[in-house]
Write a structure and sequence with these properties.
The complex is a heterodimer of chains A (149) and B (148).
Chain A (H helix, E strand, L loop, with lengths): L14 E8 L2 H10 L5 H4 L11 H12 L10 E9 L8 E14 L2 E12 L5 E11 L12
Antiparallel strand pairs in A: 1-3, 2-5, 3-4, 4-5
Chain B lengths: L8 E3 L3 E2 L2 H16 L15 H6 L9 H16 L7 E7 L8 E14 L2 E12 L4 E11 L3
Antiparallel strand pairs in B: 1-4, 2-4, 3-6, 4-5, 5-6
């Protein structure tokens, strides 16, 4: 187990969470406004829903809980987002989110970490969103070719 | 909604990745993670702080890949309606960094449309690219459109 300190320590098999929270209109609106998801389905008052992309920030919540000392010495590079959403997530829904480091491997001198995250409705366990996130740790030496987080 | 057949393309108007757009995401990220009803300022990160980005070996701040992912999602919702946020999939891969004031356009290319009992399942390739066509974000998506 490599949780407890830095995100850069995470190893295959590390479990993150669970965390539970209520999806708030404030968070959904602030997030959607920032990325210009200017649709009433997200920003309005008639039972707005969370965009499926918001699951990416659950990774950060899981990191925060599991790795209280932060990222580590260097910034991470986000390489791939892969989410499947099974049902809408209306504001006010109580959700439970769990994650697991499913892969950590070296490729061309870089360390890749894959995290699989599942969001369910708290209480019922109904699947809402499944997310697979891939990052590179410590990209300091060469930033060509990828965006970053 | 216009019925979109395979090979149809939908292209969003160009947008400049300004420094403010990069910072909005940094702040929203901090706000969403705190989730306590109060807006936050995030950072410093490689998306909003020149000195931090330079110290990480970058020539300047670069955009978070999730900004282009969300621009693609916005185009999907513009095209297919809010149903696109109810059942579907989006995979995006970040293939080039996006620097301050790069001008990007998002694009969808329909690859398959299959009628099901629940509606039409539509698959597509997705892109966010420079105006000369150089891709910065690529991937694929799928939505279920019930009112097709």
């Amino acid at each position: 187990m490599a949780t407890g300190r830095y995100v850069s320590d995470l190893a295959t098999g590390d479990r993150l969470g669970p965390i539970r929270y209520s999806v708030s209109a404030f968070t959904v609106r602030e997030y959607c406004h920032s990325v210009e998801l200017n649709h009433e389905a997200f920003l309005g008052i008639d039972t707005p829903v969370a965009p499926p992309t918001l699951i990416h920030l659950d990774k950060l919540k899981l990191y925060e809980a599991a790795c209280p000392e932060g990222t580590g010495p260097d910034a991470r590079l986000h390489i791939e987002f892969d989410a499947t959403w099974h049902a809408p997530v209306p504001v006010g829904t109580e959700v439970e989110v769990v994650g697991e480091t499913t892969e950590r491997f070296e490729k061309r001198g870089r360390t890749y970490v894959v995290t699989e995250i599942n969001m369910t409705e708290a209480g019922t366990g109904r699947a809402l969103v499944d997310y697979r996130d891939t990052v590179i740790l410590a990209f300091r030496s060469d930033a060509k070719g990828e965006a970053a987080e | 909604m216009t019925r979109l057949a395979p090979d149809s393309e939908i292209v969003a108007p160009p947008r400049a990745m300004t420094r403010e757009r990069m910072r909005w995401y940094v702040d929203a990220q901090a706000t969403a993670v705190a989730n306590d009803g109060r807006p936050r300022h995030g950072g410093p990160t490689i998306h909003d702080d020149d000195d931090y980005a330079l110290a990480q070996g970058l020539p300047g701040i670069i955009a978070d890949g999730m900004v282009s992912t969300n621009w693609i999602l916005a185009l999907m919702i513009d095209t297919f309606g809010a149903e696109a946020a109810q059942s579907g999939r989006l995979r995006t891969k970040y293939v080039r960094p996006v620097y301050e004031d790069d001008v990007l356009r998002s694009r969808l290319r329909i690859t398959e449309r299959v009628a099901t009992e629940d509606g039409d399942r539509i698959r597509m390739d997705v892109f966010c690219e420079m105006q000369d066509g150089t891709p910065v974000t690529v991937g694929e998506a799928e939505v279920l459109v019930r009112d097709a």
